[in-house]
Amino acid sequence: MSDTLRGVVVCHGELAGALVDAVERITGLRGLLVPVSNADCDRGGLEERISAAIGGQPAVVFVDMPSGSCLIAALHRLRDQNGIRIVTGVNLAMLVDFVFHPGGVPAEAADRAVSAGERAIRIP
Amino acid sequence: MPIQLYRIDDRLIHGQVVLGWGRSLGARFIVLVDEEVAASGWEQDLYRMALPPEIEPYFVGVVEARSRLAAWAADPRPGILLTGRVETMAALLAGNGGPMPSVNLGGIHHRPGRIERLPYIYLTDDELRALKALRAGGVDVTAQDVPTTAPVALDTLG
Q1: Which of A32, A73, A101, B73 sits at a 20 to 30 Å CA gap from B113?
Q2: What's the rounded Cα separation, in Å, for the pair B146 and B158?
Q3: Does the CB of B46 have a partner CB in chain A at under 8 Å?
Q4: Which SS3 state, helix, strand or coil, does residue B59 take?
């Protein structure tokens, strides 16, 4: 297993690209996250994009909504694959935390990402 | 109350359907006519996740859908009927004895052999012919992804 987990960000429209761009601008770390858009494709096409982004490596797949076409495509394609975890409700804080902690196994990385994302939701 | 929306959308139950049309129409049930999903309990669970509790799903194939169309049309709740494919909608409505509905083209995306007609509608020539045959049978066919956009007439698609 590779020491570095791949992060794949799957979102509606152009959101994934914008999130990945923002993470790279904040951290200076590039190439750890791969954006996938659901634009202009059916579910089968989106599944192919997700598979290509994962590239057969252990990965955490970050999805924007806890339902909908992005999550359904990810679950449909990945449900029987080992070494993959899916996290819904992606936000910038969890992605920044993820790229600063790129090692470990997908299950632990997914738990960590959820914690980081939840901590970022507050009323200051 | 007749089914409020007959829609062809290859993403099936997703945000535009549930949040866009579902809220706009006050939908309380969605009929998904798809042979693969009708035969797969875990796929049905996936699509249930996309629904709020007030919307009841029905997962059926074409044969069962045809047998239940009249009952759904008599249901007092507003409803949406979805297919992922042009040919499924055509098969469903072929020989329909009741009033012919309008059909909404909501999302048919790129595949080899399809031509872009709108940014969210790609059709093969056979699919376009099937839609024109539906229209010749009394079905009004328009493209419209979400309720806030204007419907686009079938004739402008090719």
Answers
A1: A73
A2: 21
A3: yes
A4: strand
* Chain B nearest CA to A26, separation (Å): 30
Between A40, A68, A76, which is nearest B15 by CB?
A68
Is 70 exceeded by the pLDDT of residue B1? Answer: no
Count other Cβ atoms within 10 Å, centred on residue A37. Answer: 18
Chain A nearest-CA distance from B77, in A, is 23
Q: Do A71 and B15 touch (CB under 8 A)?
A: no
> What does the H/E/C string look like for B73-127?
HHCCCCEEEEECCHHHHHHHHCCCCCCCCEEEEEEECCCCCCEEEECCEEECHHH
β-sheet bridge partners, residue B152: B143
ipTM of the prediction: 0.78
| Domains located in chain A, CATH noted | 7-120 (3.40.50.510)
Closest Cα in chain A to B37: A76
Q: Which residues of B touch A43 (CB under 8 A)?
A: 10-12
Backbone angles phi, psi at A23, to 5 degrees: -60, -45
d(CA B100, CA B121): 23
What does pTM read for this prediction?
Answer: 0.87
